[in-house]
Amino acid sequence: MPETTPPRYDVIAIGNAVVDVIASCEEVLITELQLNRGGMTLIDEARADELYEAMPPAREVSGGSAANTLAGLATLGLQCAFIGQVADDQLGKVFRHDMRATGIDFDTPGRDGEPATGRVLIFVTPDGERTMNTFLGAGQFLPAAALDEDLIASGAILYLEGYLWDPEEPRRAMRRAIEVARDAGRKIAFTASESFVIDRHGDDFRAMIEDGVIDILFVNESELATLTGEDDFETGLAAVAGKVPVLVATRSEKGAVAIAHGERAEVAAVPVIKVVDTTGAGDQFAAGFLSGYAKGEPLTRCLKRGAICASEVISHYGPRPEADMLKLMEERL
């Protein structure tokens, strides 16, 4: 359906509202704690408390995949709003403050009672690899009733993260949000988030792809293989490319590929002096890409924006930009 009104926001995202707790550690600790090195594991509150006690000194920053992407978009000058569930507790207040301080509208009411606001315990080894352990907390109880449907309809792009597809309640909320956005003639962008999410919900994702629900799909190399069942990267691309208008596949140090309406573009990764922490690399790549896509820029330029944003975030701790991203774009594009 054609748009009836111009969008108020460039991007509106629905995602996990969590606070990242990040600590550097030696490889031996990963083994001792029996962590899934380099991956993301869902944990309960008791395990979260256990891991927190075992962590070296840490820093806390607001995170969550889609929220991180919005933070990147906001630093690039785009108008954004976030929908996600926090508890009415201290971490919830921290998260809300951080979002609003970045210039992102976030008005989803806090949830009373248990569980607490979600958190991700991130162990970063000397090579910069991050091992994430996620307690979703209040985030997994985002109800469809919490959606501001007028808000959703006012965004040019609705951006959804696969991580939040796992709990039943927010999954229903996101399905409803997709209906609202599509009825308003808006674009749906979806990030698969992690291979384990595809293992659990791949049938849903593949059905959405086949049904033409997704306009922009973000995957990394391993997620593409899990989604398609094809270990060969090019074969995997071919299996999906004709079914989504825009496919973006990242390959870490090997760069990224995008295929849009039959056009293919590739970029190399932007070199960094030292990889400090890969947390948020995919999130910021999506932010860079979408910042160009929202402005109608050529595909290669959108990919370059993504590569620049990813290189900035892996050069420091934390999943959100610390540099002046507008200035960085001027210098490197």
Entry summary:
This protein has 333 residues and is an alpha/beta fold. The protein is built from 12 helices and 14 strands.
Any chance you could write out the topology, listing elements then pairs?
Blueprint: E1 9-14, E2 18-24, H1 27-32, E3 40-42, H2 45-54, E4 59-63, H3 65-75, E5 80-83, H4 90-101, E6 105-106, E7 117-124, E8 130-137, H5 149-153, E9 155-161, H6 168-183, E10 187-191, H7 195-210, E11 216-220, H8 221-228, H9 233-241, E12 246-250, E13 256-260, E14 263-267, H10 281-293, H11 299-313, H12 325-332
Parallel strand pairs: 1-5, 1-9, 2-7, 3-8, 5-6, 9-10, 10-11, 11-12
Antiparallel strand pairs: 2-4, 7-8, 12-13, 13-14
What keywords describe this structure?
single chain; 333 residues; alpha/beta; UDP-N-acetylmuramoyl-L-alanine:D-glutamate ligase; 9-stranded mixed beta sheet; 5-stranded mixed beta sheet
Describe this structure in words.
With 333 residues, the chain is α/β, with parallel strands linked by helices. The protein has a domain at 9-17 and 64-86 and 140-332: Ribokinase (UDP-N-acetylmuramoyl-L-alanine:D-glutamate ligase, 3-Layer(aba) Sandwich). The protein is 39% helix and 23% strand. The protein contains twelve helices and 14 strands. It has helices at 27-32, 45-54, 65-75, 90-101, 149-153, 168-183, 195-210, 221-228, 233-241, 281-293, 299-313, 325-332, and strands at 9-14, 18-24, 40-42, 59-63, 80-83, 105-106, 117-124, 130-137, 155-161, 187-191, 216-220, 246-250, 256-260, 263-267. The strands form two sheets. It has a nine-stranded mixed sheet, with helices on both faces. Strands 3-8-7-2-4 form a five-stranded mixed sheet. A hairpin with a 2-residue loop joins strand 13 (256-260) and strand 14 (263-267). Helix 3 (65-75) crosses helix 10 (281-293), helix 7 packs across helix 8 and helix 10 (281-293) runs antiparallel to helix 11 (299-313). The mean pLDDT is 94.
